Amino acid sequence: MKRNIPQEILPLKALQEFTPARIGLGRVGTSIPLKQSLEFKLAHAHARDAVYSELDINSLTDLLKLFGLPVLHLQSRVGYREQYLQRPDMGRRLNKESIDLLQQGYYVETDIAVIIVDGLSATAVNKNSLELLQVLIPQLTAAGFKLTPISLVEQGRVAIGDDIGHGLKAKLSLILIGERPGLSSADSLGVYLTYGPKPGLTDEARNCVSNIRPGGLSYAEATKKIFYLISEAFKRKSSGVMLKDNAGLLES
Prior knowledge:
The protein has 252 residues and is α/β, with parallel strands linked by helices. 40% of the residues lie in helices and 16% in strands. Belongs to the EutC family.
């Protein structure tokens, strides 16, 4: 028997082709249908799992050898996951051991520090970071940018890239981080770039490219945006509110 769709729902059905958002679900009495209700609960469970997921350090370390760069293992001041969620400030700074490790390296000034951080979804990092870097790093090196060792950071927030970029004497920090999971995207990767990284910067100093994943912004499209922003940041010697993504305007 064909299910009757409420008239007020019909205009929304066509929109489902363009978005994974929960629209036009229909209803059973005063509730949404059972299938959609169960899908919502499953998505919520995936989001919670992503928040408590962990970086696959060993696998990522082995795979990152592909780029011929040293890999540094760093840690924020956070000791455990519940503390990470309750104290964002501690996730923004390196712990003493990590600071000492950077200071012992005697790094010379270079261009870009590539930093991989678990953030609020290590699942997103485990799934997407290597695939993105396989497209992005060859383009950066072909353009003549010199890269620092790659940093793998546990229990970190976006601003921890300021400590790391400064410690590695990089002109620009490039942070790949797991974004806050949504109910339709628990595996979304974000990329933040900051020109002139140093402790104490705030969010207006950064640019962000978000929703990088197979179901969102593709690795190729993300690379185009990131490379454009990096190139402009070096030209202007600034980032954040002083740097706009005008790449689309240039192409039109």
